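Handout, page 2. Input:
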Amino acid sequence: MKSKEKRNGGNKSRKKEPLHLQLFSIHGLIRGENLELGRDADTGGQTKYVVELAKALGEHPRVRKVELFTRLIDDKKVSSQYKKEIEPLSEKARIVRIRCGGKRYMRKELLWPHLSEFVDNVLRFNKKENITPDLLHGHYADAGYVSRQLSKLTGVPYVFTGHSLGRSKKNSLSQKGMTEKQMVEKFNINERIQAEEDVLRTAAHVIVSTNHEIEKQYKLYDNYSKAAFTVIPPGIDVDKFYPYYYDHDENFQKPEAYIQARDKMEREFDRFYYNSEKPMILTICRPDRRKNIQGLITAFGENKELQAIANLAIFAGIRKDIDNLDENEKEVLTEMLLLMDKYDLYGKMALPKKHDPTNEVPELFRLAADRQGVFVNSAFSEPFGITLIEAASAGVPIVGPDDGGPQDIVKNCKNGVLVDTTDSNAIAEGIKTMLIDQEKWREYSNNGVNGVREHYSWSAHAESFLKSVDDVIGDYDKSTSKHGVTEAPGWRFADMDKMLITDIDDTLVGDDKSLKDFIEIMEKNRTDVGFGVATGRSLELVEEILKEKDIPTPDVIISSVGTEIYYGPDLDNLNQDSGWRNHISYQWKPDRIKEVLSDFDFLTLQDRDGERDFKISYNMDPNEDHLASVHQRLTEHKLRYQLIYSHGAYLDILPTRASKGRAIKYLGKKWDILPENILVSGDSGNDYEMLYGQRLAIVVGNHSPEIERLRGNRRVYFADNNYAAGIIEGIKYYRFMEA
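Output:
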């Protein structure tokens, strides 16, 4: 058996050991260097935040390893870097790219149907790498969903950072006239909001940048009062955004990349400006209507004094052709150009098409500071405002909205003014107060440099983060109790290399003495071999027979002919595998199936097992023509399905991806258990697909005639003994475990 890193639930001494942290940011183009910030709506500040956070945590002495999980993308439209599975960030930090939803790059709203696949592939990666993380950290709603599912399966506690929230977006879109149906179709908005509600209820901590986020955004949620909020401002790389006056020191060694960036930017501005030496009013943001760039241009365009004093520089994302942008960005950029023309700002306003966030953005801030300019964030509301901190770190005074995160920044740093950004005149006056008062400009510049180093460095952020999560790291009992279970299934499956899965009726049960012998064998081998059942019974009927026969709770229950998967540890605390549900739901239309079969008088809907989400059960007489008629009717209506006929009486219609065999294959892949290390047993037609394949199989002696067609298959052993005695006979034949 492979050597595994054992879990130590509730052991407080674990907190003193070096920590293994896993961060999740699934959408967006994420890489260690040269981030494509502003390329689209999904490559904004969040991507930079998570990369910098991973690096900062990797530098902390308490941390052993940091992994930043994101989606692997193999698409000719984007860089080949995004298809590398592993990308080192530092000695202790790395990016891990996981496949889900195919290879091509897609916007975040289209990823929701594929998130369960991401969860499964992370589990598989961790088991292969022998990784047991101490803490999970989800960024944005999709990664919140992933972190929550992983936490349920592994027992590892998780924390969440929202970055932006669905309810706020829904309110904003509604005010613009978008209907809920449109929001669902374009943004999967309700699925996102539900994921955020679930996270608020179950995350160990919800990390926010400001109190404003809690009061103005999270209070919109039903589970707001159940969340444990922790305010930790994000950090920046103060070495990258060093103060402008360092360049004036002849002993300072300026990196060559920054020298080249400065030269490029100065030449770029010379193309736009009549007088490029004037102070610069700088803004850097995505071309999003909420950023209110048009308000800044209007403020500049309507104020002749401001135009005489300074130039305006707007870096609004990265673009090649406006026509290729999405509608929101296209409208904003078009309006910017129209305003530039309206106010005749040629020679006074620069609107470059692209910039390099790694080298050119820090140099832009220093260039603005050198020319005693001002940085402006004119957004209507700003949850935090990372560019405001970057500007302050380089020594540029700021003007920002008097709503949201900038309030905390100016309170801590005393480095600028806040204005009502809905009022263009207020924006202009705020800018002028610093441009015309050199003493005030210098005071705000120095305060910003000092304040950022005290409050907003990444080292300070990492320290605060680790202190805030100390109460949950290593405390697995506490974390899993939030989900209503005492032991997560991942604890068992991570240490498991073999598994026996058996049908129940007429296979496991039927002879009480041999059943008792079988239970003793499984208990003796429980450390190394997992135990599962796969049955046509519903979960309720499985629980009934397990209790009646005093059978220990299996590690996994595959019920309703393979359409449902549940994990232990006990019958009162079962967790359904949401990944399997999501996988088999593909093109499943149960109501339509019942409708097109409703006039077949040889079919009678069963009520013995209750209505299931992914199984339609009929009674049907043994007649091959009847089965062919069902096939023909469903095919004619282009429905996706599969039929399982058993015991000459029962017809089950399942999603095309569902069955006992497929469920077992899914489990093997999810938990990295090889097919040859899975032993299955059964007795009837609804076991056929489970028994046939790469797995080892046992057919008990009391099997139905319909399963005789498997005889002769080298991986299928036909036992002489009946019921559980037949399973024991097969275990000995394969030498699968000690019997």
